[in-house]
Amino acid sequence: MVGAMSTRHVFAATFVATLVLNACSAPAPTPPAEPTPPADEPGELGQTWHNIAGGSETALLLTDATNEGVLQLVCARSPARMIVRVRAFNVIESEERLSFGLDNEPTVFVAQTQAPTDGVEAEGPIDPAFLDRLVAAETVSASYGAQSLGPLPAPGREKAETFAAGCRAGAAGT
Known about the structure:
This protein has helices at residues 2-24, 128-136, 157-172; strands at residues 48-53, 57-63, 69-77, 80-86, 97-102, 105-111, 120-124, 139-144, 147-153.
């Protein structure tokens, strides 16, 4: 019986010592977070934002690693309006609402259910508050019915400012 008691005491002491030592050790270091690449450099999936300026519109285009358009924001001049195009979405004839998020703050655009383009196209007024939020945004996203895209890295301050300036000029008729 004495041997059994000693074994229990040794086991209990070893168990307690293990708990104490583990509780006192420093936690494992957390690996550093992956930095978000600047908007001018390809993102994780090779996505890159481009400014496009033409006679009747200015645009921001997000392309993927194969240089295919993924998402496009357009400010058209005649008539002045903002257009959102999402190539990956399928048109739903009964769905007229496309939400475009800037840092999880959505703006609603009216989807064109009969648009002759690949994907979904939606439009709305050129909103100065939207342009201000775009300049400061870190992420963008879109949702249409049950379909969603993002969050994706925003275009970055410089590209967004160039786009916003073109939109404002178009809305002013200059």
